[in-house]
């Protein structure tokens, strides 16, 4: 039951009972990514969420759009995520098939759980209350990320303003 103990520690599953978690287990698929491989690519369409359970990944964003530059030379590292905190990413994938906002690249061999939109919808039909908790937790995570993005945008705009004034 190590899987169940892991699920209890994942932020998106906070508020779920042990029974809710047990009924979620069959919907989670373990996927391996080797060092250097892309888990997600920016601007691709995805229909699943990822939970990092072993290894580490780097989150990057291409800062130069519309030029024929080598993408690796124009990427900005936004974060490095380690499995010790069981981070999630790709939440938009189960909210709707929206383009991915960033790249996620395995920096060591890594293992991740995936939950597809189709499987989440199936789970939600069977477990309304649990699905509500998961969606509420996703909303909180996305809200925090949006606040961080807003703060970074203000810093960037301020730096640009100062640079233009000189």
Helix-strand pattern, N to C? HHEEEEEEHEEHH
Q: Indicate the proportion of strand residues.
A: 25-35%
Instruction: State the CATH topology.
Output: Jelly Rolls
Taking the alpha carbons of the first and last residues, their distance comes to 61 Å
Give the count of structural domains. Answer: 1
Q: Spans with pLDDT under 50 lasting ≥5 residues?
A: none
Task: Itemize the secondary structure elements and their pairings.
Elements: H1 2-8, H2 18-24, E1 29-33, E2 38-40, E3 48-54, E4 56-62, E5 75-82, E6 88-89, H3 92-95, E7 103-106, E8 110-116, H4 117-126, H5 128-165
Antiparallel strand pairs: 1-8, 2-7, 3-6, 3-8, 4-5, 4-7
Helix pairs in contact: 4-5
Notes on the protein architecture:
With about 170 residues, the chain is α+β, with helices and mostly antiparallel strands. The chain is about 40% helix and about 25% strand. The longest helix has about 40 residues, at about 130-165. The radius of gyration is 18 Å and the shape is globular. The mean pLDDT is about 90.
């Amino acid at each position: 039951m190590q899987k169940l103990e892991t699920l209890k520690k994942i932020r998106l599953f906070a508020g779920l009972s042990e029974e809710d978690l047990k009924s979620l287990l069959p919907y989670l698929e373990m996927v391996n990514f080797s060092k250097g491989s892309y888990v997600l690519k920016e601007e691709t369409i995805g229909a699943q969420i990822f939970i990092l359970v072993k290894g580490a990944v780097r989150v990057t964003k291409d800062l130069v759009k519309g030029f024929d530059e080598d993408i690796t030379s124009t990427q900005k590292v936004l974060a490095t995520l380690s499995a010790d905190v069981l981070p999630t990413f790709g939440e938009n994938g189960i909210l709707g098939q929206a383009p991915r906002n960033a790249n996620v690249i395995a920096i060591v061999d890594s293992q991740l759980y995936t939950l597809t939109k189709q499987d989440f919808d199936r789970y939600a039909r069977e477990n309304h209350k649990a699905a509500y908790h998961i969606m509420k937790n996703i909303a909180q995570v996305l809200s925090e990320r949006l606040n961080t993005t807003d703060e970074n945008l203000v810093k960037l705009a301020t730096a640009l303003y100062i640079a233009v004034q000189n």
